[in-house]
Amino acid sequence: MRNGRPAKRLALLALALAGLGTPLAAAGLDVQRIAHARFGNDAPWYVDRIPFFESADPQIDAVYYYRWALFRAHQRDLGADGYISTEFLDDVSWQLEPYASLNDATGFHLGEGRWLRDRRYADDYIAFMYARGNDRHFTDYMADAVYGRFLADGDRIGATRYLAAMRRLYRAWDDHYDATKGLYWVEPLLDATEYTISSIDASGGKDGFRGGDSFRPSINAYMYANARAIAALSRMVGDTQGAADFAARADAIKARVQRDLWSPTLGHFIDRYKVNNEYVKYWQPIRGRELVGYLPWTFDLPDDGARYAGAWAHMIKPDELRGPAGLRTVEPSYQYYMRQYRYEGTQEECQWNGPIWPFQTTQVLTGMANLLDHYRQSVVTRSDYMRLLRQYVALHYQGDRLDLEEDYHPDTGRPIVGLARSHHYFHSGFADLILTGLVGIRPRMDDVLEVNPLLPAAGDPQALAWFRIQDVPYHGHSVAVTWDVDGRHYRGGAGLTIEVDGRRVAHRDDLGRLSVPVTRVRAPIIDRPIDQAVQLVRKGYPKGSASSNTDPEAVHDAIDGRLWFFPELPNGWSSAPSPATQWYAVDFGKPVAVSRAELAFFADAKTFSAPSAYRLQAWIGEGWRDIDAVSDRPIGNGITRARWKGMTTSKVRLLIRQPSGKRTRLAEIKIF
After folding, report:
1. CB neighbours of 179 closer than 8 A, spacing ≥ 6?
2. Which one of 420, 445, 572, 609 counts the least CB within 10 Å of its CB?
């Protein structure tokens, strides 16, 4: 079933018949129109990078494009260290300084980023995390995510480059390994899931932010996936001994998880305590089901059989893990379900004793997609999958505004943590769910493209009559997949169609698996221009200065490598409303070669507007001189570019003229 042999024969037959009376490929999406409708002045960034998607469900479409805007907003430029993905848009006290990185969300970041045609973002991020960014502050499955990126892009060299670092990092987790049990343990807080059953009960119900060290399905599934990935990458470089070592590690974890973390009583994977105190005892199982028990399927750990698959029944029962608005992290029968322990002032803080979390919802939907794609079971259906996906879509909406936050009430779907940091939170995935689940592109290590959309059949209330995704990078090619139940929407014939590099290569008349051979193409060299203006360490060079609003944080924000246009979180330097002419300058602290600039101005309908005019100056000799630049017209909420003949200077200054009654917010100035 996993190899899809019958579907492959069907696909090859369709390929042989192409042009002999079979339907034509669907007309391509109008990428320029969609990009400008979704992203306004910032459309050029997306046109060149993302896969474009549309479907019969406009809410799914809207969230799909919002999630790419969220991805873009979380790309922080570190200058010479390249790009990383952040979890929070603004600083939090527990981030890795001075980068603002956190390792717990890396798997989601790479899961999304592997589908960009511009490979720099994921590539830079992986290099940074293995060089200095992964401080093991939290658990993660980064090696598995790097391998998952390889399955999509086919770049063997890029994936195997970090094998030595992967092995070192894996072995560093020996400090959380209990050799007598053959399992890994972790404090729930350091699993990024504070206030779980194990941590609350280990406190006697009094708290749960810290404590509760346990052998958990999460960390053990992560370490299983990482070991399996390292084994596969080791085989790719001919290291048979290393491959055998890590394959054995994966096999051992799998056996122990299925033997010791499976609760026959609860019919679910559960925690066992490592801590031993007056409230709980070492190796004692926790007393309830949690959503984390589905994470083994996220990484294909459980055996295929009715015993383990039965756990999924708890996810579709309203009195268990299925909430009215989404998946509960703990069942309502738990004694401390939804009890609020922790506040920031009067604002409720993050907890995992019942709330919906996009973080774990993404992981469970990934596991459910695996279950539906290649496990034999009859517990959950494709209709269940689409219903949960649509619930997840709904969480992104705050009224008619798109803004994903940290966690939600399972009864109402309303955000719980209303802190400023929570807006547009990036500790989850969505584009990857659309590509690998709804559309059903199942990335593989061999030279095969496999597609199996997880849509229910026509007539089901969760069915989709049509969808199309295009510009999907896969093993060096550009892939498109179209579904049209009756052929009327795209006028390219009823059924499921695959195109590779604009050529129709496979078709079937109904929903089902299609597999086609693709010849791997070497990945192109990544272009890496370096922004000379980034200030990571405050008070160091480069250094900003401004004509007004000289608050150090405001000045720093315009050169901190962060760029977004979401109004909920102000970002950048904001000028005073007068005088009309204002300036912002960057002192590099040394002579640097520069030849172009990118200016990001924020605009709204009230206070802020793009400048009516601007010009750039360079420090030459002992004074400022205008740069003879070819400059774009200034725009708001997009990138304004200026180019000039290369020069060497120690300072650059931007002069702006503001429209009457308006202020300028410079979200970011980049100088190359």
Report:
1. none
2. 420
